[in-house]
């Protein structure tokens, strides 16, 4: 047995998320199918660093795959990319240490959420959330600064959830002006389902002047989901880094 590390990039628009689901096109199912075709047998196990939701993209997803026998990683990289569809690619294949687990060994994950205030951009419509109004950037940054640290984030995940523990430690959270876009960068030890998108939806209420910063910060101490803002659309969210 040997363990491989696969670094993936994919456009989430055509996928119902990472995890295999009956009757749905998912990144995991597409990758498994390609591995079976190339290797001639299913891998024993696939583990992923971040289980992205439907519509969420990744520029730096990490997957560990347990296989039988020796693998030529360069040939595998070429063969997989010759088999995978155009909206997902393996950017790198490396031999990982025995026992490497892409999920449990990850120390943190980082996401970016892109917002375009003002006139729309047809060329970026699949990758940004376009808003027809301007936003209060200092207020957004004050919200982001409050998120850093350990908090009870149960307000920022659906009420019906498999999560039992809602504390997460956010290492980085900030809004950055990147040309004409506003980009939320957030890095944490782990994330709850929909956590980043509900963070964005709640912060945008502050950015538009509907809430003040204090109303937002009260969400970080175990408030119910009903107290938070809407879930922002998935298409503007990208997994951009996994740290080990």
Would you spell out the secondary-structure blueprint of this structure?
Layout: E1 2-10, H1 27-39, E2 45-48, E3 57-67, H2 73-83, E4 88-96, E5 108-117, E6 129-131, H3 137-147, E7 149-152, E8 167-178, E9 181-188, H4 195-207, H5 213-217, E10 237-243
Parallel strand pairs: 3-10, 5-6
Antiparallel strand pairs: 1-3, 1-4, 2-3, 5-9, 5-10, 7-8, 8-9
Helix pairs in contact: 1-2, 3-4
What does this structure look like?
This protein has 244 residues and is of the alpha+beta class. It has two domains: 2-96, Pseudouridine synthase I, catalytic domain, N-terminal subdomain (Alpha-Beta Plaits, 2-Layer Sandwich); 108-243, 2-Layer Sandwich (Alpha-Beta Plaits). It has helices spanning 27-39, 73-83, 137-147, 195-207, 213-217, and strands at 2-10, 45-48, 57-67, 88-96, 108-117, 129-131, 149-152, 167-178, 181-188, 237-243. Strands 1, 2, 3, 4, 5, 6, 7, 8, 9 and 10 form a ten-stranded mixed β-sheet that branches. α3 (137-147) packs antiparallel against α4 (195-207). The protein is globular and about 60 Å long.
């Amino acid at each position: 047995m040997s363990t491989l590390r696969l670094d993936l990039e994919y456009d989430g628009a055509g996928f119902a998320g990472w995890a295999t689901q009956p009757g749905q096109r998912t990144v995991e199912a597409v990758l498994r199918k390609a591995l079976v075709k190339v290797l001639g047998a299913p891998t024993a196990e696939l583990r992923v660093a971040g289980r992205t939701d439907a519509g969420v993209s990744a520029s730096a997803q990490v997957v560990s795959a347990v296989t039988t026998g020796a693998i030529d990683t360069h040939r595998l990289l070429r063969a997989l990319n010759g088999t995978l569809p155009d909206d997902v690619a393996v950017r790198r294949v490396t031999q990982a240490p025995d026992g490497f687990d892409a999920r449990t060994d990850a120390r943190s994950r980082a996401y970016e959420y892109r917002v375009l205030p003002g006139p729309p951009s047809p060329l970026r419509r699949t990758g940004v959330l376009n808003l027809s109004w301007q936003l209060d950037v200092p207020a957004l940054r004050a919200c982001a600064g409050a998120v850093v640290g350990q908090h009870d984030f149960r307000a920022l995940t659906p009420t019906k959830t498999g999560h039992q523990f809602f504390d997460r430690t956010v290492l980085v959270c900030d809004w950055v002006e990147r040309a004409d876009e506003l980009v939320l960068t957030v890095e944490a030890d782990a994330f709850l389902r929909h956590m980043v998108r509900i963070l964005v939806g709640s912060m945008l209420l502050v950015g538009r002047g509907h809430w003040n910063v204090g109303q937002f910060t009260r969400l970080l101490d175990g408030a119910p989901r009903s107290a938070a803002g809407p879930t922002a659309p998935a298409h503007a969210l990208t997994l951009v880094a996994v740290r080990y």
